[in-house]
Protein: DNA-binding transcriptional regulator, MarR family
Organism: Rhizobium lusitanum
Amino acid sequence: MAVGNRGEKAQRQDGADDMRRIDTSSLEDILGFHLRMANVALYHDFSRAMEDLGLTQKQVAVLELIAQNEGASQIDIAATLGMDRATMMSLVNRLEDRNLVARRPSPVDRRRQQLILTGEGQEILAACRDLIAAHERKFTGRFSKEELKTFVGFLKRVYAGDSSG
Amino acid sequence: MAVGNRGEKAQRQDGADDMRRIDTSSLEDILGFHLRMANVALYHDFSRAMEDLGLTQKQVAVLELIAQNEGASQIDIAATLGMDRATMMSLVNRLEDRNLVARRPSPVDRRRQQLILTGEGQEILAACRDLIAAHERKFTGRFSKEELKTFVGFLKRVYAGDSSG
DNA sequence: TATTGTTATACTCTATAACTATA
DNA sequence: TATAGTTATAGAGTATAACAATA
């Protein structure tokens, strides 16, 4: 591990005595590093795509899960996405403040609140889907169908059985 | 895409009228979703592993890059990791407050500050490496050498050429 | 006793804007 | 004009602790 020129300074691109090109070989063999770098790249593009709608990755995921699982509770969604229930609370508060989701008491368990999309929430989600599809194509277009399937399988293997909340 | 039972409610695990199992099929075909889920899983385990040292993924990456590129500037490190320079500033401030890194003026460009690890920074980084190695093995152990190579190649393809800062 | 929601609190990361010093 | 650092400010996610209502 850590091949490269550890200890030696990276060559600068101009004649200055400061370096510009950063040697990353010490992180090269760390899977988590590459995973985070890929995530950062996707995050940047996602944020750019969602600039007008003002929604984050997490918010969209929550909207999508509520749409597909109408009446789910905060804690169910949170567990699915690996989020804390207090984190979920503030996220839903933000969506509720923007009138995208609503809470209604569960008829069978009065501790629980069911989450539903408002009409506005459904509209913004529909707009999201188009933007996300275009955003996704920028990256999925770099892979063949087979590669993509393998790739997703690898990613699932990383997060499979993660119930660490 | 989106196979599953969209529209139908997921079956509950007990007799209650609320759902517990969340249907995620609407996110199944989104590469970014799986990437984030993998990242979340890794993040949780990393945080647990670093509980005593109190360092985040980003902080460790910065320490490692400074160690390998002694004298690099904040902006060089930031660009490498896809971070904003103001974000980098506060991150370095935190590391400096903990006496893990130090700033010294560049001898050739008085706008720049060179970053170096303190002795304490070198010590904590050494401790980090062991913890991270153990943490990484939990995940890399799920892949063959060939698979891992392919996996990292895929991840690089996602973030290759990302200079969106 | 355990679960769900809730509130309070705090930290990290992120990002924009504006300013200073320097190139 | 552009770059590096800096400061101020704000928003979003994360997490812990504690409490009330309910199971």
